[in-house]
Design goal:
three-stranded mixed beta sheet; 16% strand; alpha+beta; 90 residues; extended; 60s Ribosomal Protein L30, Chain: A
Length: 90
């Protein structure tokens, strides 16, 4: 959702995050055409494991992020892929 409104979108991943999760976040960022970086060990003082940001400010008077960006908190429904047999035989 953010990707539609801002370009570019950056994902910063802490080196403290488990390796499997780092790979997961990197893959998701790549699939979303976002630039992802695992932050250097030299800069690991942040309490955050994952930061997603853009270089464009967002103006909103609402202080509660869940209200200001309510559409981002809703789960997207994913349609099950149609099987090959269903495609061939209806």
């Amino acid at each position: 959702m953010f990707k539609k409104e801002t370009e570019p979108l950056f994902v910063k991943i802490s080196p403290q995050v488990e390796f499997e999760k780092q790979v997961y976040y990197l893959k998701n960022a790549k699939d979303s055409d976002c630039q992802a970086t695992i932050v250097s060990e030299d800069h690991n003082s942040s309490p955050f494991g994952l930061v997603i940001h853009s270089d464009v400010p967002v103006q909103t008077s609402e202080k509660d992020l869940r209200k200001a960006f309510s559409d981002l908190w809703q789960e997207k429904e994913t349609k099950a892929p149609t099987s090959l047999w269903k495609k061939w035989f209806g």
